[in-house]
Structures are given as structure tokens and as C-alpha cells.
């Protein structure tokens, strides 16, 4: 009997470690199995939450009970075995989760992708290395080792009979390679235009009317300048050339840095930015031009002195002006006395003020 009692006590201690899977609540917990979301609307024990000793245990038990209810609901769904593991197919979610940005649109297919899809052509993964019979070694399909292998293999190039014997075949091969790169770049730009539903001719500018406007000509000039091997870095500017601006120009220019949108700031960062802006506006002081202020002060003093001098001079005579106002004037006395003329002067004329 003692052995039986010991076994029972041991089993009872083990059972006490694990809590039951059946959880009872006053109000049923709202469950969304699609998003594995459980919403408990029952009242909380405020006294327990306010006590520092029992708060953590209370929240831990509450989370455990709600998680147990969610798992019980999950295991009620039909199960299946995949790779020696039992899985459950979750239903469609009921809760709509908000998004900070709109759902991205699917990327449009290029002309080759549409052709391959219509013909059923599947993309095959290429090998990184390829055996070269001439060099008798494995050569990579791209990279600097590929260029070194091509240089080693093509140390001598035969000139065809229909070509001028003085033709530089290395230069011709390099020009053909650059033309191939330019053709691929043109095809990429055409794919962008097709995705944006822009009508483009086979040659020339993508214009919608008979004549191209200034913006289209500036865009075409910038794209043509950036089509060189240096992406237009060493190209001289045209006289009176303006930088092309507009939506989508950065995508047409190869190697141009795209402007990334700034991430949405957090409420705390937005609050700090607004407070800093407000401080700048309130603490802004007008800029004072000291030289201009001093010059204006000196000018005002000179005007004031001149007015004071005019007011201090007594008026000895008055005459009427054309406007009818009387003006002060002072006449010079003749040397020979009042009313006498100088005999040395034949015609003294009118006395000036």
C-alpha cells in the first residue's frame, strides 16, 4: 500500500505542474483563427494589477488562459500530415489589418516575358562555369575572369576576306559589344514606356503631336547624353542647356540615383519636428543691415541740419513766383552806390542773385 500511495502522490504532483486545458470565462473570448487573434472583453482585476507582487503572475495566467482557448479552437479544425508533421489549414481571416502603404501592384511583363509565356518557354538556370575546348579549362560565363579568358583565347583574330585587311578587328569587336549594350538599354527603355502606356515611334522622340515641345527635347538630350559609356560624365553642356525635370526622367537615365521616399515618422519624431519648427518661427529675428542703417541716420541728420540753416537765415526781400507764392531773395548792392551804374561796364546787364 505504501508503494501505491507513493505512486499516487507522485502523479498528483506531476498533474499540479500542468494546468487543465479547459478554461472557463464569464464572457466568451472573441477568436479569429485566420490571424490567430484572441480578444478578451472580460473585466480586469484592478486590485491585483495595482499590487506589485501579484501583477506579473496575474498577467501571465491571463495570457496563458487566452492562448489555451485559441489553441483549443485551432485543433478543432481538420488536420493533415505533411513530411511527418501534422498541420492545420487556417481559414480566411475575419479581422482587416490596416496598411501604412497601398498594396503593391504586380510588375508588368516585358515583351520577351509575354512572348515566352505565350510559347510556353520556361527559364532555365544557367551554369556559372563552362568548359572551353580551346583553353581546356572551366571558364565563368561572366565577370573579370571571363574577360581575361576571352583575351587569352583571342590573342590572334583572323581577318575575313570580305573585310579590309587594314581593319583593326579588336576595335571592331569592342564597337560591336558597345552597340549590343546600347541595344539592350534601348529595349529596357521601351519596356518602361510600354508599362506606362506611352506611345513611341520606331525611331525619334516619343511625341504625341507633329512637333516636340521644349520639355521633350530637353529630356531627349539628357537621355542621349547619358547613353555613353561614362553615363554622360565627360560630356560638355550645350549652350543655354537646362536640366530636364519631370516625373519619370530618373528611370530613363541609366545609373541615375533614385530618390527614395522618406519613411513615415513616428508620433514622437513628428512632435519634435513640429516643436523645432515652431521655435524657429518664434525666435526668428529680422536681419539688420548695419551699413544701411548708419547711412540712413547720417542722411536724416544732414537733412535736418540743412532745414535748420534755412530757417535761421532772415529774409531780406520777397518776390512772387509763377505759382503765386512769395519767395525770399537777397539782391547784391552795386559798388557805386544805390541806384548807380559802373561806368567801366558798357552793359552791366541784369543783376544776378
From TrEMBL:
Compositional bias annotation for Basic residues: 312-322, 332-353
The family this protein is said to belong to: Belongs to the RRS1 family.
User: PANTHER family from the xrefs?
Assistant: RIBOSOME BIOGENESIS REGULATORY PROTEIN, RIBOSOME BIOGENESIS REGULATORY PROTEIN HOMOLOG
Record's superkingdom? Eukaryota
User: Any idea where this protein resides?
Assistant: Nucleus
Q: What is this protein called?
A: Ribosome biogenesis regulatory protein
Its source organism is Parnassius apollo (Apollo butterfly)
Q: Where is the composition biased (Basic and acidic residues)?
A: 237-256, 296-311
Q: Which UniProt keywords apply?
A: Nucleus, Ribosome biogenesis
| Job description of the protein | Involved in ribosomal large subunit assembly.
Question: What are the BP-aspect GO terms?
Answer: endonucleolytic cleavage in ITS1 to separate SSU-rRNA from 5.8S rRNA and LSU-rRNA from tricistronic rRNA transcript (SSU-rRNA, 5.8S rRNA, LSU-rRNA); ribosomal large subunit biogenesis
Amino acid at each position: 500500500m505504501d508503494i501505491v500511495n507513493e505512486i499516487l502522490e507522485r502523479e498528483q504532483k506531476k498533474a499540479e505542474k500542468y494546468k487543465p486545458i479547459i478554461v472557463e470565462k464569464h464572457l466568451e473570448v472573441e477568436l479569429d483563427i485566420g490571424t490567430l487573434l484572441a480578444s478578451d472583453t472580460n473585466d480586469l482585476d484592478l486590485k491585483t494589477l495595482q499590487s506589485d507582487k501579484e501583477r506579473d503572475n496575474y498577467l501571465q495566467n491571463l495570457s496563458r488562459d487566452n492562448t489555451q482557448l485559441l489553441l483549443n479552437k485551432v485543433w478543432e479544425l481538420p488536420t493533415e500530415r505533411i513530411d511527418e508533421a501534422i498541420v492545420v489549414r487556417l481559414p480566411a481571416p475575419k479581422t482587416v489589418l490596416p496598411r501604412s502603404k497601398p498594396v503593391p501592384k504586380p510588375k508588368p511583363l516585358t515583351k520577351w516575358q509575354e512572348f515566352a509565356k505565350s510559347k510556353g518557354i520556361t527559364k532555365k538556370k544557367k551554369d556559372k562555369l563552362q568548359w572551353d575546348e580551346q583553353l581546356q579549362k572551366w571558364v565563368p560565363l561572366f565577370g573579370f575572369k571571363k574577360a581575361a579568358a576571352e583575351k587569352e583565347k583571342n590573342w590572334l583574330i583572323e581577318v575575313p576576306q570580305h573585310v579590309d585587311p587594314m581593319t583593326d578587328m579588336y576595335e571592331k569587336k569592342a564597337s560591336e559589344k558597345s552597340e549590343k549594350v546600347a541595344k539592350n538599354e534601348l529595349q529596357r527603355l521601351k519596356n518602361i514606356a510600354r508599362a506606362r502606356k506611352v506611345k513611341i515611334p520606331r525611331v525619334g522622340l516619343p511625341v504625341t503631336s507633329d512637333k516636340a515641345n521644349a520639355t521633350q527635347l530637353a529630356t531627349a538630350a539628357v537621355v542621349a547624353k547619358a547613353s555613353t559609356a561614362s553615363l554622360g560624365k565627360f560630356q560638355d553642356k550645350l549652350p543655354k542647356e537646362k536640366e530636364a525635370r519631370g516625373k519619370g526622367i530618373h528611370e530613363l537615365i541609366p545609373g541615375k540615383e533614385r530618390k527614395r521616399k522618406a519613411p513615415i515618422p513616428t508620433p514622437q519624431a513628428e512632435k519634435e519636428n513640429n516643436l523645432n519648427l515652431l521655435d524657429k518661427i518664434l525666435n526668428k529675428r529680422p536681419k539688420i543691415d548695419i551699413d544701411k542703417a548708419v547711412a540712413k541716420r547720417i542722411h536724416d541728420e544732414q537733412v535736418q541740419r540743412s532745414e535748420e540753416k534755412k530757417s535761421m537765415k532772415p529774409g531780406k526781400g520777397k518776390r512772387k513766383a509763377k505759382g503765386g507764392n512769395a519767395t525770399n531773395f537777397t539782391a547784391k548792392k552795386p559798388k557805386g552806390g544805390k541806384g548807380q551804374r559802373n561806368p567801366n561796364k558798357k552793359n552791366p546787364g541784369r543783376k544776378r542773385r
